[in-house]
Amino acid sequence: MALVTSKEMFQKALTKDYAIGAFNVNNMEIIQGIVDAAKIEQSPLILQVSAGARKYARSAYLLKLVEAAILDTDLDICLHLDHGEDFEICKKCIDDSFTSVMIDGSKHSFEENIRLTKEVVDYAHAHGVVVEAELGKLAGVEDDVKVDARSATFTDPYEAKEFVERTGVDSLAIAIGTSHGAYKFKGEPYLDFERLKKIHSLIPETPLVLHGASTVLKEFVDKCNSFGGNIPGAQGVPEDMIRESTKYGICKVNIDTDLRLAMTAEVRKFISENPAEFDPRKYLGPARSAIQAMVQHKIKNVLNGSNTL
Ligand code: G3H
Ligand code: 13P
Ligand code: ZN
User: Fold this and answer.
1) Any idea which residues carry the catalytic annotation?
2) How many domains, the chain?
3) What is the average pLDDT score of the chain?
4) Which letter does DSSP use for residue 307 in this model?
5) Which of 229, 236, 263, 299 satisfies CB 3.0 to 4.6 Å to 224 for a cystine?
6) Is the CB–ligand 2 distance for residue 214 below 6 Å?
7) Which residues surround ligand 3, an ion (CB under 5 A)?
8) Which residue from 215, 219, 216, 267 is spatially nearest to 245, judged by alpha carbons?
């Protein structure tokens, strides 16, 4: 088995209305929890690495851990750069054998985003690597975004079509109301499904990507808070909304916050209940198991991706 691109995964996901989980990885236990879940569920898998992860764990360690995961599980895995901010970091990851990179030009003007994305696409495609780009801006706290502001920050469907045609990008991250982190909505959760449907109808062959797709599972928030944490009012994207989005072209669902919460909840619980223990394996083991169970739940019940290998 090997590092693979997401091309085939996305083609199947697009026609069958399921999505591939793209999970952020930062250390060995997180990687093991995720790949063990994918193995049990027989699900395709994207592991993604942010600039912060590269800085924390150091790129060479993450690469070798992912190679070890392939050896250990016999899974094909797509290794993806999350939110690459310039051509240089994308090139570095492509040269380091990543099979997929994201160039996030969403902070630039439309024309500059196109120019930058095209530059990365040309280099990546020449090396057999696929590219995700982003158009539109993820909301901060969505509740504060008024309807007028929405059209300024959310992805414009016609621009999305032009963007894909002019860049030749392989997949597109869109903004329809999600945001990163544990505080996504102040009031009722809202995603602009009409906008998503329009985008999908204009570019039906393009796999769409949903960033900020953690649900912020109550079970983990409550556990964190009951063992000394302080994360009140955390709220994510309800699972039925994620499920719904996979019907309209969402093929890749990005999840990081739910991993962080699952891990932290278990570590907090163990340390609080066992004050005399100081062996990290004692709390990182349960944390790894919690990640595995959570990722299995996502694959099975939210992404509809079990047995899709
Ligand atoms: O895009 C955001 C991901 O959750 C990665 O977060 O930059 O703190 O590693 P990070
Ligand atoms: P969450 O913060 O919702 O997990 O989103 C992660 C993400 O989009 C990584 O790119
Ligand atoms: Zn993201």
Assistant:
1) 82
2) 1
3) 96
4) T
5) 229
6) yes
7) 211
8) 215
Range of the domain at 231: 7-301
Q: Whose CA is nearest to atom 5 of ligand 2?
A: 212
d(CA 285, CA 191): 36
Answer whether residue 223 is part of any domain.
yes
Ligand 2 atom closest to the CA of 237, numbered from 1: 3
Helix (H) or strand (E) holding 48: strand 46-49
What backbone torsions phi and psi does residue 278 show, to the nearest 5 degrees? -140, 20
Residue 297 carries which side chain, given as an amino acid letter?
H
* CATH number of the domain enclosing 244: 3.20.20.70
Angstrom distance (rounded) from CA 291 to CA 41: 14
Assess contact for 186 and 141: CB atoms under 8 A.
yes
What is the average pLDDT across 262-286? 98
Q: How far apart are CA 130 and CA 124, in angstroms?
A: 6
Which residue has the least CA distance to atom 4 on ligand 1? Answer: 256
Ligand 1 center from residue 277 Cα (angstroms)? 30
- Measured distance CA(173)–CA(165) in Å, rounded: 15
Residue 125 predicted with pLDDT over 90: yes
- Would 151 be classed as within a structural domain? yes
Testing ligand 2's pocket by substitution, the residue of 180, 185, 235, 252 carrying the most ligand atoms inside 8 A of its CB is 180
Q: Which two tokens stand for residue 307?
A: 């047995």
In the structure, what pLDDT confidence band is assigned to residue 140 with cuts at 50, 70 and 90? low
Long-range Cβ contacts of 65-71 (<8 Å, 24+ apart): 65/25, 65/28, 65/31, 66/3, 66/25, 66/31, 67/3, 69/31, 69/32, 69/35, 70/1, 70/2, 70/3
The answer to whether residue 309 sits within a structural domain is no
Query: Per the domain annotation, does 184 fall within a domain?
Result: yes
Question: How far away, in angstroms, is 259 Cα from ligand 2 center?
Answer: 10
Q: Percent helix, strand and coil across the chain, each rounded to 5?
A: 50, 15, 35
Per-residue pLDDT at 144 exceeds 60: no
Q: Which of 134, 294, 160, 28 is nearest to 303 (CA)?
A: 294
